[in-house]
């Protein structure tokens, strides 16, 4: 193994079935602190199923997922932010009628006092708490080069900026694991290069582990510390990028080469 | 759709830092003073109309939270208006509760009913919720008319509300006492609505409306947000109903036809979705004044005007009367200052 110590996230023999179709078949993998793990595989390999299972949008038929050693099976999607798991969406799911700042703020709200009385009556303690969150988010926005458009709407922003806003929103929750669902989709070559820097910057500055689910093999191989390859709902390779890239089953899955 | 500006962001950046909040507060205080001044400026029927508008505006503020901020459509809030009105009437008729307190009891009863109805109803989305709530609106007059509850509701005859004016030393006549009570509740609901909409509950409502899956991923409890919006809208509608009953001093089943629910819906949309105060106020003025005023000018033609104005307002400005008004004021301001105001609008 590449890493010593306890895993941040452990997936143990996870199986997901839709009707009779087995989308994930006894998958096991671990993610360690501050590690960038690339997850690759052809279409239908089960990457998105695994992703949605980790976000609790899907439920597994057997197996378990542990975060810091604790099972997340009983939890719902809205509980995951509090467990330190943040995510972005493949097709960008920002709140279209909010400002950039407010979108990022929604990432932090789960840890704040959201009661009716808190909103209505306020108070010194609450104002300080909200002021601190506001400052933290402004700091986050400036780290991600978004401070200038904090008060702007989402509608005017281009695709690459929207991706950064989604990153910021996920990071506002102070996650220990950031899950990225095909972040390079729809980006041009230059933007993919920026994304590569952004992922490393985020890992280094925010001390998060990153699970990168991606079609863009070049990006995954360049940025990942370790790569897991999947095909037909099963793990076919797990290791250093160059090792996985040369793995016969991976070559077969991607290129259809018969490496017998 | 409008970009909601909020307390968390207001006055945070730019040269006008910390200026917009006090300015807004000054505006609210001025508006409240105008409403108070109307007590002596208006009399008789005009004061009654003003009370009516404000009580409908309270209901519209609540419904705007549900429909505007949380994006759920209800065509049945007239039923909660009726529950509030009858609660007030029964409180006064049976238990001699002072009329100033009846909205509080009506609000509690209404919230109970809203919670019971909201729990199952909120599993429905969009047109299904609209239709289910519309069923509620259609059934309401029949239930009120029924002999089953006639002992309490007065059946077809309805109930008169015997209302005592304020103590003599205050120097207020009956219309003025009622009007000032309505203004007090209006102020309270304006405050509640603004605080909630600008706070984290407002974020939860908008997030749930804009993208429920992302909202859940950000840790929002979507069901709780919807329930809170629904219960708040029901609270406002039953308090508005109670005040309207007090202003009319009479309730009967015919005062709460299903069209009342459509009128409340109209007030919210024509007034302007997501305009927390101005929209409901203008919308309420529209549904109260247009039928009354046009009937004087063109007998029998008021519904043609009512319908025509609705189509006109929505065609010009999907943000309703409030959108038209802010459009005009920012146009004037731009002319004066020579600047362009940034307007966040969704394409």
UniProtKB/TrEMBL annotation, chain A:
SMART domains registered for this protein in UniProt: AAA (SM00382)
Gene3D superfamilies in UniProt: P-loop containing nucleotide triphosphate hydrolases
GO molecular function, one term: ATP hydrolysis activity
Domain ABC transporter: 9-257
Keyword Transport applies: yes
Domain of life: Bacteria
InterPro entries found in the cross-reference section: AAA+_ATPase, ABC_AA/LPS_Transport, ABC_transporter-like_ATP-bd, BCA_ABC_TP_C, P-loop_NTPase
Record GO cellular component, one term: plasma membrane
Keywords of this entry: ATP-binding, Nucleotide-binding, Transport
Cited SUPFAM superfamilies: P-loop containing nucleoside triphosphate hydrolases (SSF52540)
Descriptive protein name: High-affinity branched-chain amino acid ABC transporter ATP-binding protein LivG
Species per Swiss-Prot/TrEMBL record: Notoacmeibacter marinus
UniProtKB/TrEMBL annotation, chain B:
InterPro entries: ABC_transp_permease (IPR001851), LivM-like (IPR043428)
Main location: membrane
Location of the protein in the cell: Cell membrane
Entry GO CC: plasma membrane
Membrane topology, as annotated: Multi-pass membrane protein
MF terms in GO: branched-chain amino acid transmembrane transporter activity
Keywords: Cell membrane, Membrane, Transmembrane, Transmembrane helix
Chain segments annotated as transmembrane: 21-41, 47-66, 73-90, 96-117, 126-144, 178-197, 229-252, 258-291, 303-325
Signal peptide (from-to): none
Domain of life: Bacteria
Pfam families per the UniProt record, alphabetical: BPD_transp_2 (PF02653)
Protein name, per record: Branched-chain amino acid ABC transporter permease
Natural source organism: Notoacmeibacter marinus
